[in-house]
Every structure is written in C-alpha cells, then in structure tokens.
Specification:
Helix content is 47%, strand content 14%. The protein is an alpha/beta fold. The protein has a single domain, classed as 3-Layer(aba) Sandwich (Rossmann fold), CATH 3.40.50. A 7-stranded parallel β-sheet has the order 3-2-1-4-5-6-7, with helices on both faces. Helix 1 (17-27) links the parallel strand 1 (8-11) and strand 2. Helix 1 (17-27) crosses helix 8. Bound molecules: nicotinamide-adenine-dinucleotide. The site of nicotinamide-adenine-dinucleotide (NAD) has 29 residues, from helix 1, helix 4 and helix 6. Nicotinamide-adenine-dinucleotide (NAD) binds next to helix 1, helix 4 and helix 6.
Length: 262
Amino acid sequence: MTNLSGKTVVITGSTSGIGLGIAKGFAAHGANIVLNGFGAPDAVEAAVKDTKAAGANAVHYNGADMTKPNEIEALISDAQKIFGSVDVLVNNAGIQHVSPIENFPPEKWDAILAIILSSSFHTMRHAVPLMRAAGWGRIINIASAHALVASPYKSAYVAAKHGMLGLTKTIALEVAQDNITVNAICPGYVKTPLVENQIADTAKARGMSEDEVVNTVMLAAQHTKKFVKVEDIAALALFLCTDAAQNITGTHQTIDGGWTAA
Ligand code: NAD
C-alpha cells in the first residue's frame, strides 16, 4: 500500500454520494482532502466534519463550479498552494437528465457535457504538470457502466461518460512514463441522491411506477440484484493508488454487478 498519509487528494463533486464516500475512504488513510461540490452551507459543513472525523490529516472545501474553467483552475491551484501538492485527482462531479432526444433540453446537454467531460479535461490539464513535477500521481475518473453501454433517454450522460473513457486512455498514454496512472471506475447503480432523483424521472419517461423502475430497469441490469456500495467504490479507488497498481493504467474497472458482462 502506498502511504497516503499527508498526500493531497482532490475530489470533484464530493459533498455527497460517491465523491463523499471516496473522500472518507482516503481520509481514513490520513490524506489531505480537498472537497468540492454544491450544497446548502450546513450540508457542506457536515461533509467537511464527516471527512475530518474519518481521519483526514486536513480538509479544505472549494466550491468551484465544474462548468467554469477559471474556477476549476483555481480549485487545482488552491490545493497546491494550501497543501503543497496534488497527488491524487478524482474526477467525480456529475449530473443526470432523463428525457427522449426530441425533448432533451439543449442547456441540459451542455451542462452534462461540461460537468462530466470538459471538467475532467480541465482538472487534468492543470494537475498533470504538478504530478509530473512531484514524480508521482494518480488520476481516477468516475465514469459509469454507461461509459460502456447505453440506455435510452440518457443521451448526454452516455455520450459524456463514453467520452470520459477516451480521455482516460489518451492521458494515460501521455503520462505513462511519469509515474502517473490514469484509470476510470465504471459503477453500476449506486443508491445516491443522483439515483434517487432519477427514479421519479425514469418512471415518468417510461410510464412506470417507481418500484418498477428499481426492479425492472435499474436492478434488471445488475445481475447480483444489489446496488453497488459507495464504500466498495472507495476501496477500488484506494487500490488504484497502491504500488501494486502501478502498471494498471488506461483501463476501466467495472463494479456493476455483472451488468456489462451480459
Ligand atoms: P450525487 O448527486 O450524490 O453527487 C454529485 C456531486 O457532484 C455532488 O457533490 C454535487 O454537488 C456535485 N456537482 C454537481 N454539479 C456540480 C458542478 N457544476 N460543480 C461542482 N460540483 C457539482 O451523485 P453520485 O451518484 O454520487 O454521482 C457521482 C458520480 O458518480 C457522477 O459522475 C455519476 O455520474 C457517477 N455515477 C453514479 C452512479 C450511481 O448509480 N449513483 C453510477 C455510475 C456513475
């Protein structure tokens, strides 16, 4: 296990769900954590408190909007200024919108592409030089089973997540000799606020009840019939930061209950 104590981990979209779970996972190894994401002040405060309680060496919150390249640049440079390095970058921020193509609002398309795909480009273009200078780095892109297979009514999300895999592979090759690895994690359904919100929208789009959406749409694809746990995704992200994972780069790691095996 690489010693993560005192290393700095920047996680986009980490005020909730998977990102917060990953933050707590790295905190438990004594890392400095940079939290990012939206939320009411008390929710953000609770995320900071929980991450500290999980064992973080230090926690800094930066509310950069992942649709704004200048704020993304400041997120990375703040982390460097405050903690002296950006050792691990986790691109996790994401939103969803479920709608048939003919009704898909163009502004939702733009926002989803910006938050999921373009923000990962911007964080990486600022973090890679810092990792190169430090001689070590790990980049983990939280993609999705939807980076590998499609579902109807999720055009922007599926396109952005497929794009994220292309970006992962490209940057992995560019930094392969710099002791930096770049990988994607592709979870199936995880019961986070993002998915809770989708249940109602999918029910509407497909003319189904919410129970039918859970059982016949979400868990139908997941052959284990279990939602993926946030803690299991954090454990996989931590493994990708170990010395044993130094030759794992440019890959996608599925954690989807067999969804994409079918
Ligand atoms: P979530 O809604 O709980 O968390 C999303 C996070 O992104 C929040 O912290 C939110 O504030 C942040 N965010 C949204 N817009 C932002 C913006 N413009 N700038 C900065 N931060 C912003 O969702 P989640 O389920 O934890 O999803 C996290 C990631 O995991 C997403 O990329 C999602 O696509 C991916 N994912 C989720 C699932 C799932 O089933 N939940 C499955 C596969 C992949």
